[in-house]
Specification:
Elements: E1 22-25, E2 28-31, E3 49-52, E4 55-58, H1 59-66, H2 97-100, H3 108-116, E5 119-120, E6 127-128, E7 133-136, E8 139-142, E9 160-163, E10 166-169, H4 170-177
Antiparallel strand pairs: 1-2, 3-4, 5-6, 7-8, 9-10
Length: 194
């Protein structure tokens, strides 16, 4: 049937989409008001859309429905996401998570590399992932552990010094490890010899 007097049909409502109100995604046209996530109904744009075949989702719902599942996959590093997406109308895998995952990794070298290459924070001894890593003294630190060992002040690249694998602010370093005597950090008198 010919398409008289208008543009393409909207991928969501099937009504005619005119050029002034058209958004294209994955070769399909949508009204600006119809360009919504199919699960949570959040408004989408070119930076937040994730398409799967003829369906469009926000990146969060797309990840819940089609992304990896299990420990470490979720909203942040080291996160266990127990959100199944049921409140969004997503029908995810049913059954126990063990039966859905293969018993051995599909690419053992990649899996082993991922588990071995995680650095440990010198302050707390826990794993430091890329999203929370700050380098200081040649070692990776958590952002929250990147503090002076004496006063606890949060450090930056402009005020950090290191000694024997520990971090200090410049003031604490000068007081504890700097030169002593007149004009050097805290001492105002020189002892007289009798």
């Amino acid at each position: 049937m010919p398409n008289w007097g208008g543009g393409a049909k909207c991928g969501a409502c099937e009504k005619t989409v005119y050029h002034a109100e058209e958004i294209q995604c994955n070769g399909r046209s949508f009204h600006k008001t119809c360009f919504l996530c199919m699960a949570c109904r959040k408004a989408l744009d070119s930076t937040t859309v994730a398409a799967h075949e003829s369906e469009i989702y926000c990146k969060t719902c797309y990840g819940r429905k089609y992304g990896p599942k299990g420990i470490g996959f979720g909203q942040g590093a080291g996160c266990l996401s127990t959100d199944t997406g049921d409140h969004l109308g997503l029908n995810l895998q049913q059954g126990s998570p063990k039966s859905a995952r293969p018993s051995t990794p599909t690419n053992p070298s990649k899996f082993a590399k991922m588990m071995v290459d995680v650095d440990k924070c010198p302050r707390c001894g826990k794993s430091v992932y890329a999203a929370e890593k700050i380098m200081g003294g040649g070692k990776p630190w958590h952002k929250t552990c990147f503090r002076c060992a004496i006063c606890g002040k949060s450090l930056e690249s402009t005020n950090v010094t290191d000694k024997d694998g520990e971090l200090y602010c410049k003031v604490c370093y000068a007081k504890n490890f700097g030169p002593k005597g007149i004009g050097f950090g805290g001492f105002t008198q020189v002892e007289k010899k009798e």
